[in-house]
């Protein structure tokens, strides 16, 4: 879904699974953990998901793009990767938990016992960005060398 435009509807609970940057990160975290636990983020929960204001989501996507290695505004055409990454579900067997001291989310793999501050799929989306960026640079070089 290559798309530089942000979704028009405010995203729901899935965006609360991911954060980067300070301003949007803290606002999104407050929305995600306003009841003191991340239980409402789990897929098996039947409660109505919380929505995030569009401006907070947009800023969160931009800050997440930077965390993925993008240079803004130069890489705005790759914001779709950051958005997709931000909305990516956790892989099977992973849980998002809340660090009691900092209040920040972290990720725990039930099978291996591994934990990480970084979403388990971040490296996948970083690689997609690197490949797309390299392809864009190759295409630009090919176009200029033909002139």
From TrEMBL:
Q: InterPro entries attached here?
A: ABRA-related, WW_dom, WW_dom_sf
Q: Which Gene3D superfamilies match?
A: Photosystem I PsaD, reaction center subunit II
Endpoints of the signal sequence = none
Q: Name one Pfam family in it.
A: WW
- Residue ranges of the WW domain? 88-122
Provide the protein name: WW domain-containing protein
């Amino acid at each position: 879904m290559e798309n530089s435009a942000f979704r028009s509807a405010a995203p729901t609970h899935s965006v609360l699974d991911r954060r980067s940057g300070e301003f949007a990160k803290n606002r999104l975290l407050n929305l995600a953990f306003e009841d003191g636990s991340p239980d409402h983020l789990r897929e098996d929960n039947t409660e109505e998901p919380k929505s995030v204001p569009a401006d907070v989501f947009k800023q969160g996507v931009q800050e997440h793009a930077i965390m993925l290695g993008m240079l803004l505004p130069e890489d705005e055409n790759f914001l779709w990767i950051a958005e997709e990454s931000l909305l990516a579900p956790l892989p099977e067997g992973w849980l998002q938990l809340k660090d009691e001291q900092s209040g920040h989310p972290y990720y725990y793999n039930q099978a291996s016992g591994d934990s990480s501050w970084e979403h388990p799929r971040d490296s996948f989306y970083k690689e997609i960005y690197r490949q797309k960026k390299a392809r864009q640079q190759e295409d630009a070089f090919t176009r200029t060398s033909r002139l």
